[in-house]
Amino acid sequence: MTRSTDPFVRIQDLAISYRTAQGRPPVHVVHDVSLQVELGQTLAIVGESGSGKSTVARTLLGYLRPGSFVRGGSVTVGGQDVFALKGPELRELRGGTVALVAQNAGQALTPSMRIGKQVAEALTVHGGAASDERVAELLDQVALPNRLARSYPHELSGGQQQRVAIAMAVAARPQALVLDEPTTALDVVTQAGVLRLLRDLSDELNAATLLVSHDLGVVAGMADDVLVMRDGRQVEYRPARELFAAPADDYTRMLLASAPRLTDDGLVEVTDDGTRRVRSRVDVRDTEALIRGSDVRVTYGRGSRAVHAVNGVDLEVRRGEVVALVGESGSGKSTLAWSVAGLTPPSGGALTYSGGAATDPEGTEVAEADLTKPVRRRPLGLRRRIQLVFQNADTALNPRLTVGTSIRRPLQLFRTARGKEKQRVGELLGQVELPAEFARRLPGQLSGGQRQRIGIARALAGDPTVIIADEITTALDVSVQASVLRLLDDIRRENRLACIFISHDLAVVRGIADRVLVMHDALVVEEGLTAAVFGNPRHPYTRELLSATLVVPDGASATAQGPSGDAEWVMQDPLAQAGSERTWKPDPDGAWEDHGDGHRSRAWLPVDAPSEHP
Known about the structure:
By secondary structure, the protein is an alpha/beta fold. The chain folds into four domains: 9-259, P-loop containing nucleotide triphosphate hydrolases (Rossmann fold), CATH 3.40.50; 261-385 and 464-480 and 487-539, P-loop containing nucleotide triphosphate hydrolases (Rossmann fold, 3-Layer(aba) Sandwich), CATH 3.40.50; 397-463, no CATH class; 554-606, no CATH class. 30% of the residues lie in helices and 24% in strands. The protein has 20 helices and 26 strands. It has an eight-stranded mixed beta sheet with strand order 18-19-20-15-21-22-25-24, sandwiched between helices. A six-stranded mixed beta sheet has the order 6-7-8-3-9-10. It has a four-stranded antiparallel beta sheet with strand order 2-1-4-5, with no helix packed on it. A hairpin with a 2-residue loop joins β21 and β22. The model is unreliable at 556-571 (pLDDT under 50). GO terms for molecular function: ATP binding; ATP hydrolysis activity.
């Protein structure tokens, strides 16, 4: 790709390899990658896990993983050869000229140090003045109140932690920004606000920005140019509007087609050349209800310090049905699901299981069970019927146990395959489309998508009737995400499993869920069939979530053309509404409005409406 001006960032024919055992040839992980970024421009690098995108991006800071080396090519930032820099010059580059905003700010911040001190340290490292006024100015720049300077990282939300990391990154006013999956674990509203902040700061600093992301919606909203990578090689490198409107390579078309969209009325199956087919939904409205909840409440603390995490929610989940819980972080969706699982027992209301076949190993029938009891007080037959699949398979699996051992443990606990555990492990691996020999592998020898499949297999070991999937695709790239969702959908159809699906990705929810509950501030504010809620949202908070969701535009299929010939999405700013002031407030009376066919929304008031309640 040619430019009319000399770029601030230039990578030319970069090749990187990893050293292996003595006597063996090195493993080549990056092959002849070239890119350039001008000041004021944003280049996104996309591709599946293991494509080498983060490896390439972090070379701007002169960083290579242990055991790796540059086999050929060059990395130049501001006219300096990065890998020729030593000592003080390299330290000046890192943070002074090039700043990194990484994926997990919670791990990047020092837990025992107050926020203000960490921001001040970022200033002094590069010779800046670390006054209280300058710290307050940086916090204000990332839309955080100065009072948080005295807080510790654990006292902040994920979005606030990410904003602190951004404040530290821009403290020395760098000329280049490396954004490595900066919003992966954030809910859509927080993500939109953080992305808008990053874009505004990039414009203010006139920085050359390199964005690494597996979220193609984020890329569509942020990037001027896009570099697609696969197996360490360049696949396609073009302006974003051209690539999204008419991708030239089959792999790019497959990636774009795999990304879920708010217009998909069902899960999408994608062929290698990018052809999309939406699979039809299964009608489960007449099946029996397995989970029933009425006025469910979960409260932490007592008296004036009590925090209502769930504040009077009605819930029903039918056999074979996927019910999605969506909302911002802290809305109560995970707490509600964990109450069903018995990890966070309700403090009020009724919650029951009516599976009819939750027999424990001794033959005792559990026809109807009280789910307000903690999991340790539930019969074994009931415990095995409600299973969880966690968000982060890396931490959910013991790294020192083989895959076979991890799956065998619930089989032994629930005694569901007496004397046939090894055979059953192989069957479960086959059910999640993995070969039986994976039983001998350790989690570290598997990809992220394979580890998530192991998590699903382990949950299926108890022969459940209800699966709770808590953000199971958050950290996965789009193609792996699509395969995991298809697998989950296949399993629930074959086994008539009920599923409580928690996600902040509304495009994913649109494809897999039969019904959706929108939660805000511990309450359900809207619920109904997914098509009704997404097609005609009645509560302003639901509309807020939908408007904040960044998705791959329909223009990617070159079906929607504007007057200039560009796809329609190019003519609009997808982050235009991010951070805008809320024009509504909850109605203290909390009355429901019925819109028919199970679709209802909670009453709300304009912000300027007088309240009769103190």
